Amino acid sequence: MLTLRLGERWRNKGALPKDSVSLEIEGVSLLPVIEETDLGQWLSTWLDALKGLIVEKNATAQVSLELPALELCLLRRPGLTVELSVVALEPEPRRITNPVTIDLVELRSALEVSTRTFLRGAADAGVEQDVIVGLERQLREATGRAISPFAAQSHEPWSFSESIDDLNLEVSDRDGRTTMVSRGSGSLAALLTGGSLRSGGSISAQPPFLALMGLVRRKPSAAAFELGLALCGALHERHTGWATNPWVDALFVRCTEGLAALRVPRRDEQAVPAPRPSAPRVEAPLAPVGTPRRVTLTPKWARPVALGEPRGRIALSKKAVVVRAPHAAHVFSVAGKEWRRVHAPRGVAASADGTVLVATESKLLCYAGHEVGARWVRDGAGLRVGPDLEAHEGRWITRLGGRGALALEGMTGCEAWRFDPPRTQRAVVSWIGGRLIVGTDAGDLYGLDATDGQVRFRIRGPVGSPWPVAALQRDAIAVLTNSAQTVVLRFAALAGGNAGHAGAVSWTRPLPFENASAPVVARGRIFVAGRSDGRGAVACLSGKGEVLWLRPVPLDGATASLLPYERGVLATDVRGGAVRLLPDGDTAWVTGGLDEALAQRLAPTLAKGALVVPGSSVRLIEPQSGRLLASTPREPDLTDYAVGRGLTIFTYVEAGALTCFEPGAVFAVV
After folding, report:
1. Same domain, 222 and 251
2. 419 pairs with which residues across the strands?
3. How far apart are CA 65 and CA 300, in angstroms?
4. How many CB atoms lie within 10 A of CB 441?
5. Most confidently modeled of 122-136, 227-241, 508-522, 587-601?
6. 525 vs 129: CA distance, rounded Å
7. 379 in any annotated domain
8. DSSP conformation letters of 519-588
9. Judgement on whether residues 362 and 389 belong to the same structural domain of the protein
10. Residues 255 and 168 placed together within one structural domain of the fold
């Protein structure tokens, strides 16, 4: 028989509703002596856990006690049974009782009896009325529905093993426990797997996750921290829900910060060189003499594209044009010859030169350019990659499951390092010099050393970071934005920046924008667009964060994109509208804005002295006057475009067609 027992002292008139509590099975207590517990809070957490198991049909639930630091972990089993484990968090994490199987019907009955007993005497004991009303409501919600048997789910056994120095970690999950994850804190039961942690000659008797949590507290070392990060990465690959779980997040943060503290100090400039501004591509203007008035765009070739998923993007190089999506890529030469088409269930990453990484269920393959065979093949180990792929000092760096970053040796495919941030569903990766800046939807900005993947700094923001950062000397400009607020901040991406050491924030500036654009920098000024009071607007900030001006523009501010031009800025939106703003904020010209909205935001481009504006048709505009020079045929489902040398324009439409346009005759006024 299961009993939730409450003490009797709380019934005294005027006494605080605190007393001893216990959980007993057949008269044997499963908990250590617990005194002075807030009975209302104790019963409330039990009712929440019961509601999660019965009403919300969660696989796990948890009851927490602050004093002492105990966690009562509940895990549904097939039928009407629940596995109960009691975990103590202090002085170090450990399971103080073996798992006990209890009947869910008995648990509900015992909790109902205890709650009603407390409610009958609560008013006389001076319990506040809102506590009584809240418990009555929770009791109705938790016990007012029949209990459905928990269906058994078939999962392949999963194991993980890693050895670093004298530490050996083995995790064994034979019944799919690690797939029963929830976003909240009630998933500790899913981490109490079988396995062991061997440290030197001793073996811990605790579940490996708890043993590792205790080890990084009790005996912090580089090996322990690296082992913790390896386990976090394995759990992320096992189930995406662990990326936002607070227990795994706590271990990840502890290990990340521990490694940073143990790292031997060295000058930041030695590892990450200062960025050298690349010389802009100099191309002859459209009209060597005079002002161009009209340009003809001639279709050169068109090819069908088969991705099998929406919103493909174009990557362009001197020799190749690649249309890529998270799970597919179609590669052509710039002359229109098909090189490769690949699909993979766990992701495809493609670079602009035609190199493709393909992640199958078990393998990771690399194809280079137009080569027929794979350059290398390695065990995929459940990796999810793509769609971006960048080369850096002999390595390929790609996205890891859309959340983090993964570095592979270019010649062998061996993993150099990986970074999988916690509490993250989507991340954006950008470069400043040899440093990767990873912005997450949780509002965190990480600075990674591209050589070894170590986290050099972490900045926590109020809202998500949906855009790549913009470089300003050794600093970075980031825009954190959502539908409610926007914050612009400047921080040192490399040591020696405006604020000193890497990660130091120079300033933050809130802006009255919703869904702001990516920032652009022109001659020390920062430009950001967004929606303000229901209208599109553009703001100009100085290098010190002062708002120099804020001007309304006749564009959809929530979908605006910016391009710096002659100390001012050019702004466009998804309907093909374009505006040029002068350095003082005055409007030089406005054009377009009547097209059907594109499915995704596309930024404008400058090439050969002409402004390329995407819309239902891609248009060439003379940037000084705003005069229309040429346009491609109207395509309502235009998905992406790219501009190559000589003002060659590649367009990709959702229907699955890649078209190449070349400029023909140029008519100018001399």
Report:
1. yes
2. 405
3. 71
4. 17
5. 508-522
6. 58
7. yes
8. -EEETTEEEEEEEETTEEEEEEE-TTS-EEEEEEESS-GGG-EEEEETTEEEEE-TTS-EEEE-TTS-EE
9. yes
10. yes
- Among 474, 485, 529, 537, residue whose Cα is nearest residue 508: 485
Distances (CA, A) of 264 to 58, 167, 224, 261: 45, 22, 17, 8
Residue 460 lies in a domain: no
Looking at the predicted structure, is the pLDDT value of residue 520 above 80?
yes
User: CB within 8 A of 632, min separation 6: which ones?
Assistant: 297, 617, 618, 619, 649, 651, 659, 661
Query: pLDDT of 10-21, one tens digit each?
Result: 666 555 677 778
Q: What is the pLDDT of residue 271?
A: 42
Rounded to whole angstroms, how far apart are CA atoms 538 and 515? 12
Domain boundary among 393, 419, 445: 419
Number of domains observed in the structure of the chain: 4
Q: How many CB atoms lie under 10 A from the CB of residue 395?
A: 18
With 80 as the cut, is the pLDDT of residue 631 above it? yes
Q: Is residue 546 domain-resident? A: no
In a shared domain, residues 213 and 138: no
pLDDT mean over 300-316: 90
81 lies in the same domain as 175:
no
CB neighbours of residue 564 within 10 Å:
17
225 and 107 in a common domain: no
CA distances from 67 to 17, 29, 131 (A): 16, 17, 20
Same domain, yes or no: 319 and 301: no
What are the C-alpha distances in Å from 238 to residues 74, 155, 179, 233, 404? 21, 11, 7, 9, 15
Helix (H) or strand (E) holding 226: helix 222-238
Are 413 and 390 contained in the same domain?
Answer: yes
Residues 634 and 618: their CA atoms lie apart, in Å, by 8
- C-alpha–C-alpha distance, residues 501 and 495, integer Å: 5
Helix then strand count (H, E) for the chain reads 7, 49
> What average pLDDT does range 323-329 have in this prediction?
92
Residue span of the structural domain in which 636 resides: 281-305+605-670
Q: What average pLDDT does the chain have?
A: 85
Q: Which of 29-43, 122-136, 462-476 has the highest mean pLDDT?
A: 462-476
Task: State the pLDDT confidence band at 476, using cuts at 50, 70 and 90.
Answer: very high
Is the predicted pLDDT of residue 7 greater than 80, yes or no? no
Is 545 part of a structural domain of the chain? no
